[in-house]
Give the backbone structure.
Amino acid sequence: MDIQQEITRRRTLAIISHPDAGKTTLTEKLLLYSGAIRSAGNVMVGKHKATVSDWMTIEQQRGISVSSSAARVEYDGYILNILDTPGHQDFSEDTYRTLMAVDSAIMLLDAAKGVEEQTIKLFKVCRDRGIPIITFINKLDRPALNPFELLDNVEKVLGITAIPMTWPVGDGADFRGVYERASKQFHFFERTTGGMFKAPLQLVDIHSEQIRALLGEVPHAKLIEDLELLDTALPEFTQADFLAERITPVFFGSAITNFGVETFLQRLIELAPPPQGMQTSLGFVEPSASFFSGFMYKIQANMNKAHRDRIAFFRIVSGKFERGMAAYHMRSGKEVKLNYPFQIFGQDRSVIDEAFPGDVIGLSNPGIFRVGDVLSSGPNFKIPQFPRFAPEIFAKVVPKAGSFSKSFRKGVEQLGEEGVIQIFSDVHGSPTPLVAAIGELQLEVFQARMESEYNEPVHLERLPFTRTRWLGSDVLPASSSLTYAFDTHGHKVVLFRSDWEIQYYIEQTQGLILLERPPEETLA
Ligand code: G4P
């Protein structure tokens, strides 16, 4: 197979959702259908039982997925890279970074809840990145909102037209199945004794007597009426509108009972775009470029107790990767030999010999890789800065041992690079670092890992700030009592106690510009 064929058959995506919508379950089922796992419930991805990507103690204790991994599966000749994003909202920064490495996203909604808070945040990141979104509305086997209401909810809250590709009949105990509009087939939902869904009975003509009898008079008439309404009220689905994010195709189903998942997978592969190139300081790099290149989107330490090391997750942008090849690490200017690239599947890792654009490989980090770094076997280039988010929780880190030892500094630096927390330093040169996070759990993970991995128990002295703003001008707020710090890029930030305080200083100080994100680095 030539490289163009390899590119064409790849799809790299992530699932975005609010916690509990069923992301873990849907991922398992997608892997199950593609044969990557033998049976859902035995080996699974995410946060469940013997979950393959569940490798940190904190995760296991709490049953949540803090970490994220990448699964590569083959289905019908296609290769699907599913980048697992941590579901817990405290770890949203990791999730955001993972979205830098995908070409499309599945937006998963709970049919009883519609668009939720976390969905909105993640949707916005996809929007900023310009990636198309496919919607799966889950849990139809439970009481759900009216499907028209759900479409309306997506449109109103997210500002994107939702076009159903399938349409449900009933919900909860009355859920009868979904009608697939393109193939004009009805997929019946039938509960079996194990609660699982039985193979779909597909009928072509929904006007037939048989289907009327199976659905019942009233639900059948309602379906026909709904479909007519959809035909007249909604624009037709076009791939161009989908890729331009004007519309999102919507599928209905029930991941836990496998219902609607295989149809979804088939359509997903047709709809999702193949690996896209990337805007860089050199211009647009196409996946088919003659050189190998890509970037790190995530660094993870100590993924496996058996291998106490740090892994950089690397998304290939262009060219073919071959084990043992050399590439330049652009930030340091060093040549690195890529001898042990891994494919990572939870606890397991296997060495891979070749990979193509869209694929994710795990590289052992010799300590020089950071999120956003580029490797290239060809020309030198930079990529746009990775998004960083304004933290809302702050603490001073004090070593319990009383001294700022080498291991203490190393731990703080490495966990900062990994993005477990953000590190700020004192503008007056104090050696006590400041850690900052979006969620409480990040601080707990930081503290636990400082002790278990660097043998440095630490105290966290909480600070009263709740907002970070980067200075976007040379003008400083009109007060001498505000707290300033430097981020790891040397940008100055101001720490505030409240939104009110920010507003106050903006009103008081002419020419003051406060930014919610660090100033963009130029690509030049
Ligand atoms: P998440 O990763 O998005 O947080 O969600 P997850 O898949 O863990 O699912 C959250 C809960 O919703 C789980 O139940 C799961 O079994 C359930 N669920 C997922 N898909 C469906 C569905 O299609 N229908 C129904 N009825 N439930 C679904 P739980 O009781 O919280 O966890 P567990 O003990 O079953 O693991």
